[in-house]
Amino acid sequence: MTTPADFFGAGLEQVRRSWSWFLVLGISLTILGVLCVGKAQTATTFSILALGWILAISGVMWLVNAFRAFSWHGFFLFLLNAIIRGVTGYLLLRHPDAGAAGVTLLLASLFIVAGVFRAVGAGVMRFPRWRWMVFSGIVSVVLGISILVSWPSVTTYFIGLAIGIDLIFDGASLIGFATAIHSLPKLELRKAA
């Protein structure tokens, strides 16, 4: 009979055997993040163009779906969705710099609003180590305000920089995970009788 401990142990052993894949992925993400930080303007333009293509393609798919559901009352909802996605995708592809400016402004606003809610919520709820969450919210608000203050000039590189930093931290966490699971002792699993 297989116990939950055996089931968990088998899964853990399978993950432990795959440590090298996690390590390679972590190193790759870290290198890609460093490249994005080094070429932040190029990474920003590429990100906006990728988003534009995704929206344009999804707009076409929604348009096809709208005509497939022509007899259904949801036709106009699908058509409106297709038009919004298609037009937004086209505008991002046609004017990636303006798209980067808009996305940067949106991100700055998101940082401010989310930071205020995080800081106030943590201050009101006061769960264990709540001060770290308040600090994180304040940092988010300061980052959002600093982006808004320097808004037109940061639009060419901010998104690429943010993506690069995120990739570096993701890669570093995967490298840490890979080394941690590699150092785990091998489990001896019981054979099912």
Rounded mean pLDDT is 81
- Weakly predicted, low-confidence segments: none
Termini, distance in Å? 7 Å
β-strand percent reads under 5%
How would you describe the shape?
Answer: extended
Number of helical regions? 8
**Tally of DSSP β-strands:** 0
Rounded Rg: 23 Å
Secondary-structure-based class equals mainly alpha
Return the domain count. Answer: 1
What is the N-to-C order of secondary-structure elements (H for helix, E for strand)? HHHHHHHH
Biggest sheet descriptor: none
Structural description of this entry:
The chain has 193 residues and is mainly alpha-helical. The chain has one domain (22-182). Helix content is 84%, strand content 0%. It is built from 8 helices and no strands. Helix 3 packs antiparallel against helix 4 (75-94), helix 3 packs across helix 5 and helix 5 packs antiparallel against helix 6 (130-149). The protein starts with a helix and ends in an 11-residue tail after the last helix. The relative contact order is 0.19.
Features:
mainly alpha, extended, 8 helices
How do the strands and helices of this protein lay out in sequence?
Blueprint: H1 4-17, H2 19-38, H3 40-68, H4 75-94, H5 96-125, H6 130-149, H7 151-154, H8 158-182
Helix pairs in contact: 2-3, 2-8, 3-4, 3-5, 3-8, 4-5, 5-6
Summarize the structure.
Helices cover about 85% and strands about 0% of the residues. The chain starts with a helix and ends in an 11-residue tail after the last helix.
